[in-house]
Amino acid sequence: MLQDFLTVAQNVLTLFILIGVGVLCAKVKLLSEAAVKGMASLVLYIATPCVIIKSCIREFDPAMLWGFLTVVAVAAVNHIVLILVARLCFKDSQEGRRRVLRCATVFSNAGYMAIPLQQAILGDEGVFYCAAYVIVFNIFLWTYGIVEMGGAGEKLSVRKVLINPGIVGVAAGLVLFLFSVPVPGLVQDAIGHMANLNTPLPMLIVGYYLAHTNLPAALRDGRSYLCMGLRLIGMPLVAMGLLLLCGVRGHVLTSCMICISTPVATACTMFATRYDRDTHLSVNLVSVSTLASVITMPLLIALTHYLETLL
Predict the structure, then answer these.
(1) Would you tell me which of 152, 221, 247, 255 could form a disulfide with 129, CB atoms 3.0–4.6 Å apart?
(2) Does the predicted TM-score (pTM) go above 0.90?
């Protein structure tokens, strides 16, 4: 268990070094809001789809397809349960605050933090399974996320749900995987180079927002602790128990736990800004939960591996 903890902790700490660079860049004005938004678009539209496609360039394997579908089911159940829990726990009178707390509880940083960790710990197979989680994440983000942040009057767009970078990247990757489509080496190299951006750029973005966080104020907010407790500890522990009881093992189990135990999604801040909700609260939740995850994620993954060896 100690070795598992140290392995995950080392990878998480590596990401935090990159976050620290982002903080430094923000403090010395090397990064601006406009630059960060451009970087976020680059990650969203180019780097993340390339990571997913790269993980799918492999021979078809029925066992991996079954693992992929398992992660889809796990992700769907996880989001539904968290939506119900968030609605029960957060009924604040301030609408903007209530909506941010609910979304922050439901949505994890499955793209920005999970994919780099999957690559570091499990390799391309972990990224492949993470792609399944990203599909479900995007569907809930562009349906429930829009309605929750925007209000009941916000209209859903089927086009936004189906045609977004995450879904398109997974769709393209699945075609390559299911039909074992050969991809020229030069194209694979280009995709690989773009995919490599998916680790440093998201961490710089998180660092930029962390530099603008009022940590003392964030640490005095009791409701924020409840939100982060559910996101970082409560639901991951419940999910761990259920997955082990259901017989999920190996890379599929580890991949699911990495996705579920990641901190609050940076998408919450993007949506809070777009719909004029409590943006400061969303930034605090993202930043503080990211800091806390340097302890919670290694512990959870190590505990998962330890319990898996006992069963």
Answers:
(1) 255
(2) no
